[in-house]
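WARN retry 2 of 3 for item q-0093 after timeout on previous attempt; input resubmitted unchanged.
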Amino acid sequence: MRTKFASLLVVLFITTTIQLSAQRRITVEAVNNDISYSLDLKAVASIFGDSRTLEDFERRLNDYDAQISNLDLNSDGEIDYLRVIETSENNLHLVVIQAILDRDVFQDVATIVVERDRYRRTYVQVIGDPYMYGYNYIIEPVYLRTPRIFSWFWTSRYQRWNSPYYWGYYPRHYHHRRPIEINLYLTHINHHINHRHNYRYSENIRNEQAYRLRNSVSRNDYGVRYPDREFSKRNANVKNRYEIERRSNNGSRSNNNIEERERRDNRAINNRTNDNTGRNNANVRTERGERNENNRMSSNTEVNNRSNREEKAAPTRNSNTERYNRNSDSNNSGSVNRSSSNRENREQQKASRNEERPVKANRELNRRNERSVEAAKPARENKSESRSESRSERRSDNNERRSNSDSNNSRR
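OK item q-0093 returned
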């Protein structure tokens, strides 16, 4: 189990690194050099959901490292500072993003409408300014989690935010920087879009009251100075930027379809070659398995033959040899349970050896008894001879004593 779990972790790690490297290699190209590509409203909606307050949101828009904006409307060679102006009424908050272009010259870039209904559900619409993005270019972000700024709008800590900055007066953390090439910007900004959220396009504003609130804080100074630079004049026969993206996607889809067909054909060819190689490898493996099986069978037969020879030499192992020969016959016939039969043979051999041990012990005892009996026979014979000699000597002594006593009596 541990090895399987570790292998799964390795596979997951490899797939995630491949996905991350693939995301890093993504490059985005603009259809043209239109000014609307210099500020991606998806990125604006993404950092709006990450902000704590509107002041924090303005700081993120102008962050030097993040480079969310690439706007240079006044063409002075520097990125325009974006200020945030807010107004509200009842459960509707309207946030306007304006570019500072000159002394008392501002231009609306986008408007964020935050609305809360009677069921306490919050909706957000990011509306591009018509001068920049065309009419009804609206993005509705659906956040994965409720942003913290939502709770800030309807709490006692809420304070309306109107940016205090203007031309020549900027916050301390702000640094001027130059714009970059449009395709480099699009590739860069794609990494700052939180792709876990959903971004839907719409053509309708949810609350008509937003128009009235927007007119109270809107600034279109740059559009009044240069009316020939508005979106409809820059892009003929196109309503807004969404139509440009849709047309470019349709053209790219046809190219993608051709590429996808070629990829499918290549995959089919690769799969065929892989199938053939897999079959060849399978045949090689089966041949190797058969060879190994034959080698095992031959080794088992040799072992069984040796055991049979040894058992034939010992007459006391007749019963055990019969059982062992049966097991060897079953092994030679190709039985599946070779390991179990070998175990049975070993157990039976041990049992037969255990049976032979008392027989050998009895034989050894009998031999010792016979030896002791044979060794005791001469000792007994010697003892009997010595006893007979002692008896004969005693008799002779007694006869001499009697004869002596008789002679003495006759003399007297």
